[in-house]
Amino acid sequence: MRRGLLLLLVGFGVTLASQEAELIPEPYLAPRFTAPVNAPSSVVVATRDEPGEPLIVTGRTLDGDRAVSGVSVFVFQTDAEGRYARDTGGPEAELNPRLRGAMRTDAEGRYRFETIRPGSYDNNAAHVHYIVTAPGYKPRLVDLWFDDDPILAARRAAGEPEVPPGIRDGSVCRSRPDCVAIRPVTRNASGVWLATRDIQMVSE
Predict the structure, then answer these.
(1) Which of 204, 183, 201 is nearest to 193 (CA)?
(2) How many CB atoms are located within 10 Å of the residue 123 CB?
(3) Domain total in the chain
(4) Distance from C-alpha of 23 to C-alpha of 18, rounded to nearest angstrom
(5) CATH no. for residue 142?
(6) What pLDDT was estimated at residue 6?
(7) pLDDT for the residue 14
């Protein structure tokens, strides 16, 4: 059975004792999860041929109210059927996702990516993962969830927390509750979903 990435720390055999890794599992500190220095601020994660509902996500990297430019933003997600990879599952698939993109934020701290709405799995709300790194700041693993997700609606109706305790109280989120951002989505005249997810940087 698969689990959400923020619940997979034990499965990875990862300890988060070090200062560097306290906000991100160690495997995601690998160089391949950092965008090239000359990476654009806008990328296509899923082309028009990818099955699913089109989605555009925008946002900014911020230190308080100040924009932080040149931040590496690596995003990855499942496809519309809730799969990170077609031929593998579990941690291996999440470390080698098919739908991914690497950006560097522009002078105003902005990023943008075109994709599809991800599918859910194992009763997890659908989500996009971010690996965020920049000199002078701690690496972060953060998520984008969607306010209209039926799994979240069911939790609200049942009086349950939107973010399960296993994630909320885990090593990654305990000190930074903003590791999960539940954001509204709207649909434009062309039928494309739109969402925004700003990211607060954490100084070293």
Answers:
(1) 183
(2) 11
(3) 1
(4) 10
(5) 2.60.130.10
(6) 52
(7) 39
DSSP 56-116: EEEEEEEETTEE--S-EEEEEE--TTS-S-SS--HHHHHHS-SEEEEEE--TTSEEEEEEE
**What stretches in the chain show pLDDT beneath 70?**
1-21
Give the bridge partners for 145, in sequence order.
Answer: 127, 182
Instruction: Tell me if 123 sits within 8 A of 135, measured CB to CB.
Output: no
Range of the domain at 21: 5-200
Q: What is the pTM of this model?
A: 0.89
Collapsed DSSP state (helix, strand, coil) of residue 179 = helix
And the tokens for 94?
């999440």
The identity of residue 79, as a single letter, is: D
Which residues on adjacent β-strands are paired with residue 180? 143
User: Terminal CA-to-CA distance of the chain, rounded, Å?
Assistant: 36
CA-closest candidate to residue 68, choices 145, 138, 128: 138
Question: What local confidence, expressed as pLDDT, does residue 5 receive?
Answer: 54
